[in-house]
Amino acid sequence: xxxxxxxxxxxxxxxxxxxxxxxxxxxxxxxxxxxxxxxxxxxxxxxxxxxxxxxxxxxxxxxxxxxxxxxxxxxxxxxxxxxxxxxxxxxxxxxxxxxxxxxxxxxxxxxxxxxxxxxxxxxxxxxxxxxxxxxxxxxxxxxxxxxxxxxxxxxxxxxxxxxxxxxxxxxxxxxxxxxxxxxxxxxxxxxxxxxxxxxxxxxxxxxxxxxxxxxxxxxxxxxxxxxxxxxxxxxxxxxxxxxxxxxxxxxxxxxxx
Length: 257
What we know:
Blueprint lengths: L35 E2 L8 E4 L21 E6 L9 E6 L6 E13 L1 H4 L7 E7 L9 E3 L6 E9 L4 E8 L5 E12 L19 E5 L2 E7 L12 E5 L3 E4 L3 E7 L5
Parallel strand pairs: 8-15
Antiparallel strand pairs: 1-4, 2-3, 3-10, 4-9, 5-8, 5-10, 6-7, 6-9, 11-12, 12-14, 13-14
Pfam families: MAM
Keywords: Signal
InterPro entries: ConA-like_dom_sf, MAM_dom, MAM_domain-containing
């Protein structure tokens, strides 16, 4: 007797978030990855290391490695005054429509003089572009002299690009830096308190000033700081600064296909 067996294979989509490695993920340790400098802007992002003694406004460490040998991208105010405004744009490749989580780290430096003239301050903008028009900035900042985490939930029915733009408009010393850009399919799952000063642990006070934002703790209370906190700067004899701040934003493009 001959027994016939029919085997049916059903392919089901993976429910876990997929990371688009090679399309937007980049630590800049090996270059720009697949990110590209825009052709229609007036400035370029520079790949720099933190131990560059000639550029005092740049971060002293990158975010990926936390050392002066690690790389990041930066845009610096020019040494000589500029007329008008210049911009440097960094573009991802085309990404598939749907839900995505964009994560990146940014750091902004401006001299004290620049804060007296807000209209002249440099600015970091993030755009989601589905067609050939840039539109309005989805996210902008012009403050924060720490490596700061940002997360953006993106939900769009069209294939899209992400644009990072540095607006250079200041005649004062300043810089904008980017590091550890990543995109994953699905929503952002990591919790992040939606507060201006960030994710400070209980018992630790938040603090901000012209050139810093973060969490402060008295030196005698350092035992309370978790090991995964990042030491940013020591204020002589008084306090430590820790990078515990993050931004979170939701973006939904409701336009139809």
